[in-house]
Amino acid sequence: MKHLHPVGLLLSCSCLLLCAVAPVRADTRREVEALVRWKASLSGADESLGPWSMANSTSLCRSTHITCDPAGHIIELDLAYTILNGTLDKLDFSAFPHLRSLTLIQNGLFGTIPAGIGNLTSLFTLTIMENPYLRGRIPCSIGQLKQLSYLQLEALGLDSTLPEEIGNLTSLMVLSINLVTLAGSIPPTIGMLMKLQMLSLTGNNLTGSIPMEIGNMTGLQNIYLHENYLGGQLPGTISHLVKLHYLDLSENQLVGHIFPGLGNSSLLEVVHIANNNFSGAFPSSICVKGALWAVNAEYNGFTGIHPQAFQNCTTLGNVDFTANNIFAELSDCFSEHPGRLYSMAFSQNQLHGTLLTDQGEDFLCNRTNLYFLDLSNNALHGGLSKCFWDLPSGRYLDLSSNSFSGVVPFSRTCQDYLKYLLLANNNFTGAFPLGLKTCKKLSVLDLGGNNFSGTIPSWVSMSLPELNFLRLSSNMFDGIIPHEILQFRQLQVLDLSKNMLTGPIPDDFRNFTGMAQEQNYSDFTYNEKYSYQVEIQIVWKNVDHLYTMVIAGMAGIDLSGNSLSQEIPNGLTTLLGLRYLNLSGNHLSGYIPGEIGNLVLLESLDLSRNQLRGQIPPSFADLKSISTLNLSTNCLSGRIPMGDQLRTLDDPSIYSNNLGLCGSPLEDCVSSSTPTQAETSLDEDRETLWFYCFVAAGFISGFWLYLGFLFRSETWRYSFYQYVDNMQAKVTKKIRSCISCFQVKGPE
């Protein structure tokens, strides 16, 4: 047999290879031309897309954004976070019959999604996100993508309805169209998506009811329809979804009762139906399959909870029924399996009963995993047991605005995790709770609105070193404010208002570093799935306000409504992070500190109803953030300072009952070389007063002498003289009192 020469063999193989490759290159040329033509229409594509050109067509498959199959066909086009600045109009979608994945994220695209996108008949994944100027409709031609398994359209400017043709995508497993302002209703054809595992249509403007056909989608595992305007009742066909894990229908307008079959799925873990108008009793079957981990049903109209609803929830971890109308025994709201309990929120309902069991023990005490408990704003009563301090993992405990009473029990230990303790607006009595002395991790303490009495202990700052919120207002604490209270280094809100405190305000604020500069808060988050905002009521800008821990820079001091005396300490002006300061309704005297203008972040200042005198410091003009001010009912005098922000506070009542003040918004001051109108008026009032005093004294003396001659009966005369002496003493005392008042109120 004749053997081929090696060179001849090589040439033969090369020819065969060229014959095989040449048709493929010709077939891919249209794809390259389509990309190059589209790139030319984009104003920002030269730098971001690189060397897309016909000259480099052979290396296009090695581009960062392109993936090809072995034959050279483009099967993936990933342009995530690539600046394009143009439209999709010039992209010939029909040139990509082999394209399996198209990704467009943060590209600066505008215009519309062309109908030609329906020509991507091999498309398996379509993702278009965060292009807010991509507007118009979802094209009906999208129903031609029969191979599509994953469709995600998110954060776009679309303003259309969900097309009925969406039902043609029978291979779809994930449908996620979020934050694109979809309007109209969910089409019934969606029930044709039998393979769909996740349905997410959140943050849109969807209306109408949830279609009954949703029950046909038996493969569904996760449903996210929150933040829309869906109404009507929850369709009972959802009970057919036996593979359902997660259901989120929150922030809609759904009504009616929750049907018993909702818990038919043995895999159901999370039911999130908050912020709707559901009513009636919460059903007992929700835990029937034993997988439920979280129920969030806050801000609805539920009127009750079936006694068996949570009794067998061995996996239950988070329950939130805040702001409903639930009238029930507290025990009905808890599972019989305390070892699984994690977070419970039943604030703003009508729960009744006590925390004590029939054996006199606190039923919370065996909830060893209880992390978050909010029972505020209910009708609970009774007292607390000693084990209240021993919850091993409790971090947030809110029992405020109930009718709890008695003395807070003493314990030598306080569990290590307690950070938020709110007992406000109850009927607790006794001294400052000694059990707090070992709560080293406490961050927020609210004992306001109770009947606590006695003195504020000097150990409070040393024993609670991490405290940043302390509210003791509206109690009966007396004595002085202990100097040690100024040892708090992280404190940002101090509210001791409406008590019976006396003595001076401590002056050394050097350790108040939490108020010395602007501060920021972060959310109170107790796990990766849920976060809770700590809200505490304070008087903010002269109105009741719910203080939220996430308000950036919130820092303030409220000592109003006590009997504090002496001068306002200069040390307060070093707390540059203060946003509100209320010292009203005390017996403070002396002058307003001249450096008060240093508090440039101060938004609310109330010094009313004291005995402050002298002029308002010129530095008031530097209070650039002030929006609420009250200096009324003092003994202030002189010209009211002016500043850009002070000019906006044009209510005369801010300065009322200060006889010596003048200037806008009060009457104008006269020239400094002549007495002011107020001073002249005061002088005239004094002269008039003295005139009447002399007239009255002369009349009394003359009348006395005259009667001495007139009456000769010794017994009657002495009795009458004694009566006149008493009257004269009373009149003299009144006159001296009036003179003293004018001396205090008058100008310096």
Protein architecture, described:
With 748 residues, the protein is of the alpha/beta class. Among the domains are: 37-160, Leucine-rich repeat, LRR (right-handed beta-alpha superhelix) (Alpha-Beta Horseshoe), CATH 3.80.10; 460-662, Leucine-rich repeat, LRR (right-handed beta-alpha superhelix) (Alpha-Beta Horseshoe), CATH 3.80.10; 678-745. It is 15% helix and 24% strand. The strands form five sheets. It has a 24-stranded mixed sheet that branches. The protein has a twelve-stranded parallel sheet with strand order 19-21-23-25-27-29-31-37-39-41-43-44, with no helix packed on it. It has a four-stranded parallel sheet with strand order 10-12-14-16, with no helix packed on it. β1 (66-68) and β2 (74-78) form a beta hairpin. α5 (677-710) runs antiparallel to α6 (714-745). The termini are far apart. Mean pLDDT is 83; it is low at 1-24, 522-531, 673-687 and 736-748.
Strand content bin: 15-25%
CATH topology of the domain at 460-662: Leucine-rich repeat, LRR (right-handed beta-alpha superhelix)
N-C termini distance: 132 Å
| Total strands | 44
What's the CATH class label of the domain at 460-662?
Alpha Beta
